[in-house]
Amino acid sequence: VAHGPSRSASGLVRMQQGPSAAAALAMAATLGTAQAASAARSGGHVGGRVGGGGGGRRGGGGGYRGGGPTNVIIAPPPLFSPFGFSPFGFSPFGFSPFGFGGFFGFGIPAPLLLLGLGGLALTSFRSARGIEAADAPGAALCLQVACYCSDRTDSLYGRLQSVARTADTQSYEGLQRLVSDTCLAMLRSSKDWMAGRVVSATAGVFTNDVESRYNRLVVQERSKWEEEQGNLKRTSVGEPTYMVATLVILLREGKDLPAINGASDLREAISQIAADVGVEDNLLAAELLWTPEDSNDVMDRDDMFLSFPELVML
Q1: Within the chain, where are the H helices?
Q2: The pTM is what?
Q3: pLDDT tens-digit map of 98-118
C-alpha cells in the first residue's frame, strides 16, 4: 500500500510527459525539415588544380628538379689597351671607366654591364635547378555568364549539371575537359544570355603574382556564391529561374579577355578560353561555380544583380 501512491504519481508524471514529448518530437521534425531545406540551397561547385589539390598532370615538368649539370660562368680577365689603361675593356684612346670603348671611345655603362651579367648568372642558376620560366603562371582569367533558364533541361542549368556529373578533376585531361565542356555549354546557351563579365590578370614586368590573383578571384566568387544561397526561393521542381555561372582558370600563357559590351564580346571571350585551354599543358587550375543548383531553388532578376553587381547587361 505504501508503494501505491508512488506508482500512481509516477504514472501521472508519465501521462503528463507524453504530450510534451510528442510536441518536442514534432518540433524536432519541423526543424529537421527546415534544416534539410536550407541545406538543399547550395550552388554547384567543381574544380581542381594541376599537380595537387585535385587534378593531375601528365609527365614530369613543374616545380623543383634536382640533379642536372651546374653552369659556371668564368669572367674574362681585364683587357689592357696599348693606348692606356682600361679596367673594363679595350679603349684605343686611353682610359675608359665605362667599359668597352670600341674605336670611338663610347663604352657600355658599368651598371648595365653588371646587370646583364647578373641576369645571365640568374638564368644559368635557374636552369641548373630545373626552374623554368614556363612553370610560372601567366594569366588568371574569370568569366561570368548570367542566363534566364525557362527550361531547366534544355538550358545552361541542365548542361552544367551534366558537365559536373561527369567531371574528372583528378587528371589533367579531366580538368581540361571540364573547362572545354563548360565553354561549349555556355556557347550553346547563347539565346538565354542576359549579362556577362570578365576579369583578366596577366603577367608583366611589374605584375608577376598571377597565382595569388587567381586565388583571390576564387575566394571572391565563392563568397558571392555562398551569400546568394540565402536569397534563393524554394518552389516546385523545375520552375524557370535566372542563374549565374562563373569560370575561373589559371594558365601558363594567356592574354586579357575582351571587355564585355555585347553578346559578340562574350562569345569571343568564351572562345578564347576554350582555345587557350586546348593548348597542351597550358591549364594549371580551374574552378566552376553556378547558382542555383538545386532544382527546387529559384533566383529572381533583382537578387541576381544584387549579388553580382559587376554583371554587364547584353
Answers
A1: 4-40, 110-128, 156-165, 172-188, 210-228, 263-278, 301-307
A2: 0.63
A3: 444 444 444 566 666 666 666
